[in-house]
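In this supplementary section we document a worked example of the pipeline. Step one takes a protein sequence of length 377 as its only input; no multiple sequence alignment statistics are reported here. Step two produces a three-dimensional model, which step three serialises into structure tokens for compact storage. The input and output of this example are shown verbatim.
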Amino acid sequence: MLRLSKSCISDAEKKAVLSVLDNEFLGMGPKVKEFEDKLSSFFGRPVMCVTNGTAALHLSLQACGIGKGDEVLVPSLTYIASFQAITATGAKPIACDIESRNFLLNISDAEKRITSKTKAIMPVHYTGGVGRLDSVFKFARQYNLRVIEDAAHAFGTTYKNKLVGSFGDISCFSFDGIKNITSGEGGCIVTKDKKVINKVKDSRLLGVEKDTDKRYRKERSWSFDVKNQGWRYHMSDIMAAIGLEQLNRFSEFAKKRRKLAKKYDDLLIQNKNIKLIPRDYKSVVPHIYVVRIIGLKNRELIIKNLNQKGIQVGYHYHPNHWLSYFKDKQNIKNPLKVTDEVYHELLSLPLHPDLSEKNVSYIVKELIKVIERNEVK
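The serialised model returned by step three reads:
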């Protein structure tokens, strides 16, 4: 089976984990500090590592003082983690529509959903692209909003020659098993806002004040104070050991992802039934490869047929405003027209560094066969 996505692990990561195991200190310690320092050099900004990307979003929101009674603008076409991170603070996610061209947050639609309770906007860098990010920042300044970027898909992507995470307000990344780099699980928060960094530093360790520096030294706090709500969201040395080796291999991963995505583009761009997401591969490091199949009526059939050919496919994502927990009457009055229209036509094709260009050619050939048999209509 050609997998949709997978962890790409070498002997270097395995040896790094064994080294931590041999050291018999498995929690948050010096490896986490080393990983944070390397990431800080990569982004040119302070970094706090946490247990996953959802925790990064949650802690960032909390550090900005966002909570019960507040609202956060977020595109509906995202993984549920974005919405759950918002509700974890007590705030309310306000589902927004996307642009039909690139499936990124539609600022004009978001503006229609602004209220006096709106405190932040969470653009989601879907598939690795960021769209008109300057417009997001301009919009946020106009309405005095915090910008918390869900950059889970965009590790390594640049915008106007600047690395995503190296500028702006707060950027949150995921290092789960299938992301552009992985630490097994894990994530990080990147910001120059020292207040946010300091709040996250304690809140990821259950709110125990000044515990981080002790953990770096393989120590722990016995006598301490807690003044704010905290969570058990710290990264472990095992995770950091994997992340350090993955970061060393990132240029290799980025090159391969771009090469494979470009190969897909070249093979599919002339097909009248398929609409591609436009990308500049000089700046975008694609995390997933999503296509829109115009007129697709039976996605489950196409998934079944491709699975039978040894090709695992999927779709990203089920719109959050359709989920029982996040349904809102406002979405009936002001529907998310593009999201509602394109969702049924989305298909994600395999993309990860262990694929070959020959694999991509085979995937495209079988996909086009299914479409030409009209089995998608």
